[in-house]
Specification:
By secondary structure, the protein is of the alpha+beta class. The protein is built from 18 helices and 16 strands. The strands form four sheets. The protein has a six-stranded antiparallel sheet with strand order 5-4-3-8-7-6. It has a six-stranded antiparallel sheet with strand order 13-12-11-16-15-14, with helices on both faces. Strands 1-2 form a two-stranded antiparallel ribbon. A hairpin with a 2-residue loop joins strand 1 and strand 2. Helix 2 packs across helix 3. The two termini are 37 Å apart.
Length: 537
Amino acid sequence: MTSSSTTAPPQEAVGPLIRGLAVLRSLSSGDQQRAGDLARATGLARSTVDRILATLENTGHVRLDGHEAVLAPRAMEFGNAYLTSCRLPDLLGPLANRLADAIDESVSISVPDLDGVRFVHQAPRRRAMSLTFRIGDLLPAERGAPGALFAADWTEREWDAWRRRTADPNDAGFRSVPVDDGTAAASFPDRVTEARAAEFAVDNQLIEPALIAVAAPLYAPDGTTAAAISVVSHTSRHTADSLAATALPVLRDTVVRMRDMLAVPPPPVEPESVERPEGNPVQSLARGLAVLTALGGSPGGLTLTAVAQATGLPRATARRSLMTLEYLGYALADGRLFRPTPRVLGLGYAALSQRTLSQIAEPHLATLVGQVHESASMSVLANTDIRYIARVPTVRIMSVNITVGTRFPAYAASMGRVLLAGLPTEERAALLHRTKPVALTNRTITSQRQLLGILAQVEHQGHALVEDELEEGLRSIAVPVRDLTGHVVAAINVSSHTSPEPSAQALARLLPPLRATAAAIESDVRIVGRHQAVTTP
């Protein structure tokens, strides 16, 4: 259980980092997005909030959209730092997924965070009624099975903190669940005693009606409860007792395997360098955020020297940032090692974790349109067609009118050729054979042999240019978007009416910003997809 200090910050604490994280935490709540609202929520001066938001925009953690500040995918780097450091999703996620498949119920992994519970991995089932908690969501300990397991390790001081918190019936610190009527809190100490003796806990509709769960503890090598593995179901499928009887044997077998895996020390990893922050309005805030991100560079944590090397900061500067993060409860010192705590998941991770590919791409496409003054789109392969999943039109008297969801034959579209070129050679040939291309204009290429040659060229050059083949007068240039593994998962393009501008000149003008946009989208996809799959709408 992580600790939180209510005392004054240490003398060497970095004040701008404290204030900046307060703004980021308030912004993550979703209620305050305007600078004035953030100032009122944090008690900071408006000018201070403005400077903090300018810094967060420069570091890429926030996007300023008019008068509103919006969390950017890069804010997930903080949560990724914790998830990498604790190793739980990467190491145990596959076992949790197999358990969910074996019993056909949702499975989650959660960790303690003060008197709350945070989810770090979800393996949901596809049903009309399914688990909706997000990775990073925070639940009160008394409102579920995992909390009873974690509270078995609490000290009397921690119990006192829990009693003070639950004494307020209107506590709004846990946004993921409705306010309790006091029933769950009243029964909690007894449930903790039962869970300690039985080494499992049951949630009989404590979070919300009809939701039930059984959880088993995953012990760390030091004997404390490192995580809880939960099987979650619905009263239409089980009672709490029948779920425990059905799931507990296989759940316990899985936990034993997880415990064995967790006991193996992680191999040494050279931490990656974190971009050194320069030229920000609040330089010490940018440096502190870089330190927090760097803590995810190696499972188990980093030494002060390693943090300084990863960030390019002087040891004294890195040390002050680490001291501040530890004071705020975002970092924990374990001997010579520093590691992030689950609390960093509260810095926007849950809100950002469900971003789809199109939601990630849209701000970048809008920026591209503002640069080139042409419409931009993203599409994915849908059998032999492309399907548009994002579209930002330019404002002109004459424009290309295409909506999200529109489909076109892949062989005749620039994005389609990029997507086909991203397939293995045999697969792309088989797909073209199924398509049986037909002429859409008098310039449409329909020869499979010629198309295969074009696709090989597109694969080599990394872009596709199509003019007058999908529609007379339409020119389109496309480039691929790749996932973490390097596979082409989507394509983006810039489209316009064919104009007197020569093709080579249009290519020279549009291709560099198009490629830069694809690189920016790929960077965000890597961040959002570090510990979970990025979905396509």
